[in-house]
Amino acid sequence: MDNNTVKTVKFGGSSLANAEQFRKVYKIVTSDPDRRYVVPSAPGKRFKEDAKVTDLLYACYDRASGGEPFGEAFAQIRERYDGIIKELSLPLSLEEDYAEIESALIHKIGRDYAASRGEYLNGKILAKYLGYDFIDAADIIFFREDGSFDSERTNEVLSSVLKRHDRAVIPGFYGSMPNDTIKTFSRGGSDITGSIVARASLSVLYENWTDVSGFLMADPRIVDHPKSIRTITYRELRELSYMGATVLHEEAIFPVRIAGIPINIRNTNQPEEEGTMIVSLCPPDGKSVITGIAGKRGFSVINIEKDMMNQERGFGRRVLQVIENSGICFEHLPSGIDTMSVVINTADLAPYRDMVINNICTAVDPDAISIEDDLALVAIVGRNMVNAKGTAARILKAAAEAGINIRMIDQGSSEMNVILGVDESDFEKAVRAIYREFEE
Ligand code: ASP
Questions:
Q1: 49 CB burial (10 A radius; 0-12, 13-18, 19+)
Q2: How confident is the model at residue 169 (pLDDT cuts 50, 70, 90)?
Q3: Which protein residue has the closest C-alpha to ligand 1 atom 8?
Q4: What Å distances lie between residue 220 and 4, 246, 348, 439, CA to CA?
Q5: Which residue puts its alpha carbon closest to atom 6 of ligand 1?
Q6: pLDDT > 50? residue 1
């Protein structure tokens, strides 16, 4: 079969939460013969108060390791899977797997192992239902001794394994350590597995099926019915997801980006919608200036003042050395001739506040130093900003007209984003005002 039409498709937990959702997935996969590699999550919530299987597994593990009985929680897990198998009339029994998992829990075989069984069992069911091969992720996704993901070894092994499987289901979320124990990615990590499989299978497209039709221009909890984003670049997405726009796991971008494979976010419940396409490059098309707006509360600014600071060699380095020595990261570094500000996540700074201030005083002997809290950052992101004159003016005017005091402005050197610092109490107002200014 010609490799260059292959698609990798990943389905999230809500897309596989019950038999009805499995049927939708079946239709989607079988409606396109190029959808040859399928990565499932564990069954997610069927309704708001429902539990995700992954959370039930963590609960079982915690109880078992505290020496408590976990039978009831485990029975719930069995019920979920057996219900799906029965409703789909599949000739499959997971009894042996349940026995093995129960025994592993009793022997405290590992929290990651416990959590990974959600995807493992769901993968077995989905493979049976689709008539696809099942490939255990433990055999093809590898972590190093220090727990980091070993992308090159994984890619090498997985590429050659996939050549032997025309169509396969590969459970998401986990892989194995050099000593063969199971390790998971962080929560939501099946997105990463999908991306890894897309790269290794040389897929032309990585479809990530979830319960929303892609990315929206702003958080719908803040802006009423924001428009959806049709195309976004990896870099724009990084900016927006870092600032709180979540649909896809942050790290899922990297494997496909290496291979230049686009990601299409699609909605299992509305498969007719095109969703959002995430691409590596998209030439400025002069259409909408802004791709999206996102933001976060909970930042602090350390303001440092010193006359003639600009002529003092190593000033910035000494300040940043103090921050580094405290083991924290900084977010932004707006500066003036005699002033320098360091924006830091308030929660990260909290344990080191006094120490950082004292050490900066020792390191650079400032004329004044202070910390201001309650800052929210708003990121306005758009690849078309580079060519659009007056964008910053429009942003500032919109904020001014909404009566918002801007405490910080930072424009990324790539001219792809403008970050505003505003009082936390103005955060939502700022997002709405700027969205309205650019809504087309
Ligand atoms: N099942 C895992 C979680 O709930 C991983 C995933 O769904 O991507 O986080």
A1: exposed
A2: very high
A3: 188
A4: 37, 12, 28, 14
A5: 188
A6: no
Strands in 339-345's sheet, in edge-to-edge order, are: 339-345, 292-305, 368-381, 417-423, 406-411
Using the mean position of ligand 1's atoms as its centre, give its distance from the Cα of residue 411 in Å. 35
Q: Cα(215)–Cα(232) distance, rounded to whole angstroms? A: 9
Yes or no: say if 39 and 33 are a contact pair by the CB < 8 Å rule: no
pLDDT of 2 strictly over 60: no
Assess whether the C-beta atom of 42 lies below 6 angstroms from ligand 1: yes
Residue 189 CA, closest ligand 1 atom number: 8
Would you state the structure tokens that stand for residue 326, as one six-digit string?
């405290």
Domain residue ranges in the chain: 3-279, 292-438
The CATH number of 292-438 is 3.30.2130.10
On whether the CB atoms of residues 210 and 266 are closer than 8 A, the answer is: yes
Contact present, 399 and 422 (Cβ < 8 Å): yes
Radius of gyration of the chain (CA): 25
Q: Do domains 3-279 and 292-438 have the same CATH topology?
A: no
- Which residues make Cβ contacts (< 8 Å) with residue 76, sequence separation at least 6? 51, 56
User: What is the CATH T-level fold of the domain 3-279, as seen in this structure?
Assistant: Carbamate kinase (3.40.1160)
The finding on whether 193 has its CB within 6 A of some atom of ligand 1 is no
Contact 249, 401 (CB under 8 A): no
Q: What's the CA gap between 422 and 21, in Å, rounded? A: 42
